[in-house]
Design a protein that fits this description.
InterPro entries: Leu-rich_rpt_typical-subtyp (IPR003591), LRR_5 (IPR026906), LRR_dom_sf (IPR032675), LRR_TM_domain-containing (IPR050541). The chain is 10% helix and 20% strand. β15 (204-210), α2 (218-230) and β16 form a beta-alpha-beta unit. With 289 residues, it is mostly beta strands.
Length: 289
């Protein structure tokens, strides 16, 4: 394959792994991997890919692991990862995607792990993962997600990991989840959340949850603690982000009950504390911008 463009990979009938690491690959053409009938692992990382085209990976019927992280990917064609019935894991973090499309993975029903952390995704659409019944790990930490549409997680009943930390969420509506879902590890830290509704807490059970450095209303945080206890879960703090010098919640005087609404003024007041710390938190612990 050339340094700038990956065209035809030849007839390497026994090849199972192809890796391009830091090779300055800019384009992979449709059909590039035809003629490699046993290919299971493909990696194109630390390169300059900007677009994933339909027809590049679809012909690889045996593909189990795809790594396209650490590129500059802005665009993925509709159904670019469709009909990959052997695909189990995809790693696409550290790119520049600003959107999510459920049709990317149509009929790739054995996918178990997807990692799209540190992109620029803004919204999770309705039924974002509905065609992926075996999905166990979703990493969307470090994006720009400000909205999750109704039924976004429809079809998922049990997850080992759901990463929504370091995004821009002000609310997570109960309608985004099915009627019942078990999540082993849930990350919602470093967002702009004031509360989690009672309806949402009734749907979700966790083994461990990261929720530090949100502008929680104190009565609402108390309810969340009770929920964690009731599900026999554990509260975790992101590595390197522990501190005894910052508040865990904020409240208005004489307010004793959780009011399930977004309070922008309270959020600004809470997040303003971090600008005046004598010992700043490690980078990424809290989102103040």
């Amino acid at each position: 394959m050339g340094n700038k463009n990956c065209q035809n990979s030849g007839y390497l009938v026994k090849l199972k792994t192809i890796s391009f690491w830091g090779c300055n690959v800019e384009t992979v053409e449709a059909g590039a991997f035809k003629g490699v009938p046993q290919l299971k692992n493909v990696q194109i990382s630390f390169s300059n890919l900007k677009k994933i085209r339909m027809g590049v990976f679809n012909p690889i019927e045996t593909l189990e692991l795809l790594r396209i992280h650490d590129n500059r990917i802005e665009t993925i064609d509709d159904q670019a990862f469709a009909n990959l019935t052997s695909l189990k894991k995809i790693y696409a973090g550290n790119n520049a995607l600003s959107y999510w499309h459920s049709n990317w993975f149509r009929n790739s029903t054995n996918l178990q792990t997807m990692d799209f952390h540190n992109n620029k995704i803004r919204t999770l659409p309705r039924r974002a993962f509905a065609t992926l019944p075996k999905l166990k790990r979703i990493n969307l930490d470090w994006n720009e997600i400000s909205a999750i549409e109704s039924e976004a997680f429809r079809g998922l009943k049990k997850l080992q990991y759901l990463g929504l930390g370091n995004n821009r969420l002000t609310v997570i509506h109960e309608s985004v989840f099915p009627s019942s879902i078990q999540i082993s590890t849930l990350l919602i830290n470093a967002n702009y959340l004031n509360y989690l509704s009672g309806e949402l807490l009734n749907k979700v059970s966790v083994l461990e949850v990261f929720l530090d450095y949100n502008p929680w209303k104190c009565p609402c945080l108390k309810e969340i603690y009770a929920w964690i206890h009731s599900t026999k879960g554990a509260l975790r703090v992101y590595d390197g982000c522990g501190s005894n010098h910052v508040p865990v919640c904020a409240n208005k005087k004489s307010v004793l009950q959780c009011s399930e609404n977004v309070d922008e003024e309270l959020s600004r007041r809470y997040l303003g504390v971090f600008a005046n710390l004598t010992k700043p938190l490690a980078s990424g612990c809290v989102r103040t911008n």
